Amino acid sequence: MELCSLLTRKDGAPGIDGVTAADYEVNLETRLLDLLERIKSGRYRAPPVRRVYIPKADRSQRMLGMPTFEDKVAQRAITMVLEAIYEEDFYPCSYGFRPGHSAHQALRNMQNVLWAKRLYWVIDLEIQKYFDSIPHSHLRAFLDQRVTAGVIRRMIDKWLNAGAVEDCLLRRTAKGSPRRGLARPLEHLPAPHAGRMV
């Protein structure tokens, strides 16, 4: 858990509890041991994210979810386990949200391929509001194919069910995943090979 805490960004906005990374680091070892015990025993309660909106260039708004710092550490731990499971399924040309793979590397690779093959067109596509609308049932079905570990599945279900606080109201939904959550990039994982499980 110490590594998870160390790898978690310290300058992010606090969640609904208002606890910053600096606040959390007071008695860090005790907090992390308690967090690990609550995760293992199933007593961990995923807090709702703090929902905020930021303006986009096209004058629409992007919805963000701000998890608590402790929740970010817990998400980091589960994400690290799942990354190890799914990493072997990625193609070498896959860059999004992978450890050691940056957007700059992807652009350099794409530039080299375009020049080598004398290609002149690049099409950039985006599925609008994908993360705001993906059904939780699809995420669970995807995980069912490879992940059976009770602790991991329980934690993911807790995050999916935690909801978001917006305008002092708790809102729960059966779809969508908040931006800013560390576990969110797991939605980019490749389709698994049949029959392999944790």
Structure overview:
- The structure is a single chain.
- The protein is an alpha+beta fold.
- The chain has eight helices and four strands; from the N terminus they run αααββαααααββ.
- The protein has a four-stranded mixed sheet, with no helix packed on it.
- Strand 3 and strand 4 form a beta hairpin.
- The model is unreliable at 190-198 (pLDDT under 50).
What are the salient characteristics of this protein?
alpha+beta; 8 helices
Question: How does the SSE layout of this entry go?
Answer:
Elements: H1 2-7, H2 21-24, H3 28-41, E1 49-55, E2 61-66, H4 69-86, H5 103-117, H6 130-133, H7 136-144, H8 150-162, E3 164-166, E4 169-171
Parallel strand pairs: 1-3
Antiparallel strand pairs: 1-2, 3-4
Mean pLDDT: 84
Percent helix range? 40-55%
Summarize the main sheet.
4 strands, mixed
Helices and strands, in N-to-C order? HHHEEHHHHHEE
Q: What form results from the Cα inertia axes? A: globular
What fraction strand?
Answer: 5-15%
Work out the radius of gyration.
Answer: 18 Å
The count of strands amounts to: 4
Number of helices: 8
In spatial order, strands of the major sheet run 2-1-3-4
The secondary-structure class comes to: alpha+beta
> What distance separates the N and C termini?
20 Å
Poorly predicted ranges (pLDDT <50, ≥5 residues)?
190-198
